[in-house]
Amino acid sequence: MAKQDSCGGNTTLELPQRMQIQFSDQKQEFNKHPTKSGRRSLSRSVSQSSTDSNSSVFSESSDDGSSPREKQQKTSKGSSDFCVKDITKAEFGRKEIEIAEQEMPALMALRKKAAEEKPLAGAKVIGCTHITAQTAVLIETLSALGARCRWAACNIFSTQNAVAAALAERGTAVFAWRGESEDDFWWCIGRCVGADVWQPNMILDDGGDLTHWIHKSYPSLFKRLRGIVEESVTGIFRLHQLSKAGKLCVPAMNVNDSVTKQKFDNLYCCKESILDGLKRTTDIMFGGKQVVVCGYGEVGKGCCAALKALGAVIYVTEVDPICALQACMDGFRVIKLSEGVRHADMVITCTGNKNVVGREHLDKLKNGCVICNMGHSSTEIELASLKTPELRWERVRPHVDHIIWPDGKRVVLLAEGRLLNLSCSTVPSLVLSITTTTQALALIELYSAPEGRYKQDVYLLPKKIDEFVASLHLPTFDAHLTELTDEQAKYLGVGRKGPFKPSYYRY
Fold this sequence. Notes:
The chain is of the alpha/beta class. Helix content is 38%, strand content 13%. The strands form two sheets. It has an eight-stranded mixed sheet with strand order 9-8-7-10-11-14-13-12, with helices on one face. A seven-stranded parallel sheet has the order 3-2-1-4-5-6-15, with helices on both faces.
């Protein structure tokens, strides 16, 4: 495939001046349970279709069941410092990465501009994120900027096996495969850390599991870190807990609450990927369906907008009165889950909290209700309450389980309550270009900062970097910014080149 200018034109890329980052303050009757023929129809509708027409998300699930931990594999150069499903799939994974590169202009521009400067020379970055073609572009960009990287997966279902193989073939120590067990998950993190042979000095985390592991298992190593970059609400919550307890020994960067992450990854990405994940797993038609969305933050807003556009009837649950009022003004009915659970055709959690949907709700769901999670944490649906002797689980398709009650009622659970879009579909490369560029700049900022700039606390990226990341993507759309005159800039009290909004501005 012909390579084009990664920014869509002859754009001059200049990194913004490093700035001091400030501390963040931070009723209707419905069908009874079906007859046998009804249940057979439901099972057929969910399981029949074409795994062929679905992408490699499902096709990878058909690999042999042997654990990669039992295999002896080597790259073409003889390296065995990795553990992936099948190293022979590296060529296919490389093609996936090259496709993603075409939709990730800012990251490719950063790679091209900063490769000679090597701002991460000497950095040893250990990462725990989703391992997809898009994050592979990030990992290889970090390597091009001078870092050495070792990587594990933050989600047992989201790894693209061929991509992991391609990374390993190019020299990245990757320990991940789709369908890991819980034991495999922690084993991979332990091998990735490799504290006996490799001493990381930077962490890039998604969810906080890697940070927690190192803090607990290697406290002396944790104290020597230069910094942590975290991109999820769950991970940020755990970092603040460490900070409040006086146990956060290193500076940490909160990427999750940067504008470019909140608005683009959380809102626009989920707006597209929710439909993709649901269609691939259930073949469901959304028109007229009664859908309860738990949470109306950026993720919930994106999910509601997408489902509403296809004719679904949306109900929202919220604990925050501001978000609840936004949902009302957007035309959605705000209810308690207990009020809407009986008539719901679908329940989607988007909160990042725990036990949002409990057994008392699950018992009241009607036959055929689909339940899934779009929040980061896998604890939103109380799955432990479903693993009891009276309930039977039936796997009908990869990442699709029927949970069968004694009276024959079936609830359709997707991805075992884990993140739907990355477990059961893919996400747009362009959106991830925005997030991964922010992560890369956060790593550069923490690693390059002079001693004493950052204390042992959690920081936000400055607005200037958010605006810089956004500006790198505008040429993709042939967008042209209006420039302020000196008089206009003085009138508004801002610089001609930004930042254009105060830190407290809400987009």
